Amino acid sequence: MSDIEIRDDRAAGRLEALGDGADGEVVGHIEYFVLETPARALVPVHTIVEPAHEGKGIAGSLARELYTIAEREGVVVAPLCPYVTKWAERHPEEAPAADPELLRAAKEWLVAHPGRF
Fold first, then answer.
1. Dihedrals φ, ψ of 82, to 5°?
2. CA angle 78, 11, 100 (to 5 degrees)
3. Letter string b/e over residues 61-95, b meaning 16 or more CB atoms within 10 A of that residue's CB
4. How far apart are CA 39 and CA 27, in angstroms?
5. pLDDT value of position 21
6. pLDDT (tens digit, 9 = 90+) per residue, 37-80?
7. What DSSP designation does 39 have?
C-alpha cells in the first residue's frame, strides 16, 4: 500500500485518507456519525475508495483507524457500513462487537435523519 495520511474531520463526519501526492487528494473516506444515546459510539455508514485507488488497502486502513480512534476516546464502534462490518468480523482482536441495542439505536438514528447520508 502506498503511504497515506488519515485525518478525522469530525465536524463533517468523515474519516479521510489522503494520497501521497503533493496535492493531498482524498483517495478514500468513511462517512460516520456520533451516536450519543443509549451510549456514545462512532457509527460508520459508508466506506468509499476512489476507483483509481482500489485494491491498495485504503479501506482497511480507514476501518482500522476508526477503531483506533474509538478506543482512544473510550467509545465503541457500531458499524452500519457493510465494509466495516465485514472488516470487524475478520479482525475481532481489533474490533470488538457492538451491542445489538446500540446497533438498533444507530439504525433508528439513521432513519430519523434521512438526508444526512
1. -55, -40
2. 10
3. bbbbbbbebbeeeeebbbbbbebbbebbeeeeeeb
4. 31
5. 64
6. 999 999 999 999 999 999 999 999 999 999 999 999 999 999 99
7. S
